[in-house]
Design brief:
- Two copies of one chain form a homodimer.
- Chain A contains ten helices and nine strands.
- The first copy, chain A, has a seven-stranded mixed beta sheet.
- By secondary structure, chain A is α/β, with parallel strands linked by helices.
Chain lengths: 221, 221
């Protein structure tokens, strides 16, 4: 955590690349490696070595001449910096298809996210639990917010109620919304929104695949 | 499909915004609306109206003065263009936590993706089925590829075998890989890769949330 204090704001493109370096380090560690060079990181991620050195210096990691970076050190700093070593509690809104699937993805906890409760309006699931996580009625949000210190809300409701649910989340104190709906929600400036629309990614993939079949090759990868 | 033939390559930023317009149209249709103005689309998506008009003209949609865009027409063209009206068959690789969750997300089919089979190495799940989708051993990939016409592979294996499984997918004829692992996989130039790392998105959100709490306000949204 000492390292964290000295870190200024890291540019977003760097932030997006850091998890790739982390994954390579995790992989190399399982293979018994102790050091990794920026050349090796470059080969594994297809990012130029000078960019990698720049990115890592943003989180105060400097390689040693000839040996490169110590993998254990890289793992420790990156996991801590990326927030994967601290458990962040979250509420999930909409325990339907995608929401229910996310409740079953226990992998999230490994990366620092623990869903402590879900909210829904359907009498079919309210009062039950999914993978051990209780599902409450939306009406109970206020009281549950008071009991748990939760700042993150995962939004997996149908688009018809996405904005309405987002508004409620903000009113009761949610500070960051992980938006899985394909709708752009509107929130006050001090609320963090992370959009992850699987369907938008799907259409990008379809489009590239069609382009590939239609004519030449794919240059948008 | 007639429209499709006349459409040249659409820029990627436009491609990323089109699903947002589609979502707004779906929403407005449920509310009984027939037309939508670019001003309204702008208000709902926080994208400037002139950009919206530009984006939509890329897929040959032109608004009418005063009334705007016909919602049914927008829906039809966008859904078709984005590939959501054609069923694309896919194989899923790695029916573990996240993979198993995706198999349960029946929403994907609504957006044109049908997972017809899953592959795994674990004796605990091979031979069984998840949400009606059969899980085969990786050894059976070759024969299953011959039987089904599948071009899309969803990669949800652990990072230790991500590259190896990706290599096999390519050898047996997969043309597009939807990569959910946090690893950058290396593939030939003519293979489409769509990266969707939930954990990378998670770390972006944590980082913004921490920045928000640490000092001033969030300007990276």
């Amino acid at each position: 955590m000492d390292t964290m204090l000295k870190i200024d704001r890291v540019p977003e493109p760097t932030l997006r690349r850091l998890p790739w370096y982390l994954s390579v380090c995790r992989l190399l560690k399982t293979q018994g490696e102790v050091y990794v060079s920026s050349t090796r990181l470059s080969k594994e991620t297809s990012i130029v070595a000078s960019q990698i050195a720049k990115d890592l210096s943003c989180v105060n990691i400097v390689g040693r001449t000839r040996v490169g970076y110590e993998i254990d050190n890289l793992l420790e700093v990156l996991e801590s910096f990326l927030g994967f070593t601290t458990i962040h509690k979250a509420f999930l809104f909409g325990a339907g298809r995608l929401g229910g699937a996310l409740l079953k993805d226990t992998g999230l906890k490994q990366f620092g996210l623990e869903v402590v409760a879900a909210f829904d309006n359907s009498p079919r699931i309210v009062g039950h639990s999914v993978s051990g996580i209780p599902v409450y009625h939306m009406n109970e949000l206020e009281s549950k917010m008071r009991r748990h210190k939760v700042k993150i809300g995962i939004l997996t409701v149908p688009i018809e109620c996405a904005q309405e649910v987002a508004d409620k989340m903000v009113v009761w104190g949610i500070k960051a919304i992980w938006n899985f709906t394909p709708l752009r929600i509107r929130v006050p400036d001090d609320i963090v929104v992370q959009n992850t629309s699987l369907y938008a990614h799907l259409s990008l993939m379809f489009n590239r695949l069609d382009g590939l079949e239609g004519e030449t090759q794919n240059d948008m990868k």
